[in-house]
Amino acid sequence: MIYLDSAATTFRKPQSVRAAVLRAMQTMSSPGRGGYRSARAAEELLFRTRSLAAETFGVPSPEQVVFTASATHGLNIAIKSLVPPGGRAIVSPWEHNAVTRPLHALGAEVSVAAAPLFDDDACLRAFQKALRRGADAVVCTAASNVYGYALPIEEIAGLCRRAGIPLIVDASQSAGVLPLDLTALGAAFAAMPGHKGLYGPQGTGLLLCGAEAKPLIEGGTGSASLLQDMPEFLPDRLEAGTHNVPGIAGLEAGLRFVREKTPESILRHERRLIRRAAEGLSRMDGVTPFISEDERRQVGVLSFTVAGRAPEDVAEALASRSVAVRAGLHCAPLAHRSGGTAGTVRVSVSAFDGEAEIDGFLRALRTARNP
User: Fold this and answer.
1) 138: β partners
2) CA–CA dist 49, 367 (Å, integer)
């Protein structure tokens, strides 16, 4: 199978990730629940992983790194910590339902900083205009999961700092390839999944906390057990229940894999593959790839449409030829309304893909269009 759906999850993992998950299942129990060897091993794992993430993403202390089940979990904590029911939020036009649905559930007034695709100047002007009205928070993706557009997040963060409005960064498609320094951005929170660009297992994620947060769920933490309120201190305040120790072990190994290869080299590799795919698609009649003229504005995600064919039909035809892609709205209807599409076929790559996968995909698409 040619797997080109890494924006959903990086299916091919480093061997070190698989080995770490198995080793944790064999040697580690619940952290903070005992002084015996397997519990201590789990505690040490959690501290190592927090420390590694803090160093990687510019977080002042490991305690400000919170383990979550997903980026969606982390975004819910961040949004519901900053935006009160009926409050106001500003979002980019490329947001995922992981952002827009929590805001809708809060009954928030949502202002979209609308701008054309791949247009940084218009994007910044739109944010600047929206910020003049004030808001409880700005929520902005660092890279669109539909089009791969890498937003000017540093500049957006600067606008938020000057306006005195807290920023939540959705790093779902950028963590592991684009730089992220929580301290330099001055962001209140940044959320990311473990299973995409960090090459960890599903069911893992990180929330980087630069502001006070409210618990999303309450329960046992292994600390301050006499209290019936959640502890006031991080990370315990946000980590009720038993940790996903095997998943965190895999996440630590994934973080080390990314640091060893370096995000810069992974990004160069992915951009080269995406350009190759876009060039091949642009040579096919009726096929429209959505790609930035400036490669610095795109990560390893590429959407395209085929005239006269529903995206789902194209993806199904590719699946029958052993090519895995994503089709439809990609859980981001706002992004499609903003980009002028009613659904796309999405190709997304990882460090484990090469030119052979891209060329195989292009051959399969040609036969799918001309059976």
Assistant:
1) 90, 167
2) 46
Of 261, 280, 302, which residue is a domain's last?
261
Structural domain including 286 reads 2-10+262-369
Q: pTM above the 0.70 mark? A: yes
Domain identity same for 288 and 217: no
Based on the fold, state whether residues 235 and 313 are members of the same structural domain: no
Rounded Cα distance between 253 and 245, Å, is: 12
Same domain, yes or no, for 45 and 93?
yes
Q: Final residue of a domain: which of 194, 226, 261?
A: 261
Angle 351-356-361 from CA coordinates, rounded to 5°: 100
Closest CA to 346 of 312, 306, 304, 314: 304
Question: Which has the closest alpha carbon to 232: 245, 256, 215, 257?
Answer: 215
Phi and psi angles of residue 126, each rounded to the nearest 5 degrees, phi first: -65, -40
On whether both 77 and 185 belong to a single domain, the answer is: yes
Q: Do residue 116 and residue 235 come from a single domain? A: yes
Residues 219 and 279 placed together within one structural domain of the fold:
no
Residue range 314-343: mean pLDDT, rounded: 97
Tens digit of pLDDT for each residue in 1-22? 999 999 999 999 999 999 999 9
Same domain, residue pair 245 and 267: no
pLDDT above 70 (res 371): no
Q: How many C-alpha atoms does 54 have within 13 Å on its Cβ side?
A: 17
Does residue 230 carry a pLDDT above 90?
no
Mean pLDDT over each residue of the chain, to the nearest integer? 96
Helix (H, G, I), strand (E, B) or coil at 170: strand
| 79: Cα separation from own chain's centroid | 15
- Among candidate residues 5, 9, 2, 12, the one with its CA nearest the CA of residue 349: 5
For 25-82, the pLDDT digits (tens) are: 999 999 987 789 999 999 999 999 999 999 999 999 999 999 999 999 999 999 999 9
Q: Total domain count for the chain?
A: 2
Contact 87, 102 (CB under 8 A): no
At what angle are helices 263-282 and 355-369 packed, to 10 degrees?
A: 30
**Domain match, 146 and 38 both:** yes
248 φ/ψ angles, rounded to the nearest 5 degrees? -65, -35
